[in-house]
Amino acid sequence: MIDPFGRSISYLRVSVTDRCDLRCVYCMSEDMTFLPKKDLLTLEELDRVCSAFVGLGVKKLRITGGEPLVRKNVMTLFNNLGRHLKTGALEELTLTTNGTQLAQHAQHLKAAGVARINVSLDSLDATRFTSITRWGNHAEVMNGLNAAKDAGLKVKINTVALRGVNDDEFDDLVAWTGSNGFDLVFIETMPMGDIGSDRTDQYLPLSMVRARLGQRWTLSSIPDNTGGPARYMRCAETGGRVGFITPMTHNFCESCNRVRLTCTGQLYMCLGQDDVADLRAPLRKSESDAPLVAAIHEAIGRKPKGHDFVIDRRHNKPAVSRHMSVTGG
Ligand code: SAM
Ligand code: SF4
After folding, report:
1. Ligand nearest 322 Cα, by number?
2. Among candidates 324, 124, 310, which has minimal Cα distance to 199?
3. pLDDT (tens digit per residue) in 1-47
């Protein structure tokens, strides 16, 4: 699948639920209204859409949400999608999780063929963790991370950089991830969805984070080989990798190889744009995949060049109205 700007689309992110057991302050408001469960694609339908994408050349599938591990029986989906790893059609099956349910699922994920996972963690301090996530229990996530390590899963920690919230912990996070053999990726907060407060004060450009880390750590650029949007550096002192995802300060769209499917079968061609293609109707129209495949091709044919996020006091409305949990991070 090649889009109108010559980019090859080889990476599908799938939000299997918009629900979550946490309410991170930058992601959701406290009183979220979620989609009625009847609107969701079934696990069988999700498998069918993912498999159609794999047939069209997708090499990397990331299961996300909302919190993917709160979707009932989600392990069935992982087990079934694992068959594409066995045939070699798919190179990577992975997930992004908040880690709260990882302790129960880590071994099973590994057995299904998952090799690496992303776990979101914005603080090493238990009290602060709860204030950022509103409802989170830090010890649960730590147990999940230990279980992931024991299962032999490679772990990347995702940390949203929040001014005045966790910006005094970045050195500790580099040291902690390094000593655990985890990668660490910093993310800029993006203006997606109403969170019931202003994002301006929390926004912290990663150029500043990188400069500050450079005072304590020896960081040198290394080529990115994970197929995602992060730019990586190697930390000489820990030997670990530190990545930066900068959708705000650096336009990462030129090399975008991704599209995103929601749990109701809507395909977003860009995280920062509203254009969407409905795949649920063609999926349900026929037992043959022909209408679905045609709809996918049509959608890829209108993937936009990029997005233009702005966070400042004049633009204090979200750039897109949907929350990150709809299309997944
Ligand atoms: N619940 C899972 C988790 O937290 O890892 C998966 C979904 S979550 C939407 C995926 C990632 O998006 C997380 O790392 C989260 O920190 C990030 N995220 C959510 N809202 C964001 C925003 N407005 N700006 C930047 N990153 C955001
Ligand atoms: Fe839930 Fe992930 Fe959003 Fe936090 S970032 S509220 S864990 S979906």
Report:
1. 1
2. 310
3. 999 989 999 999 999 999 999 999 989 999 999 999 889 999 999 99
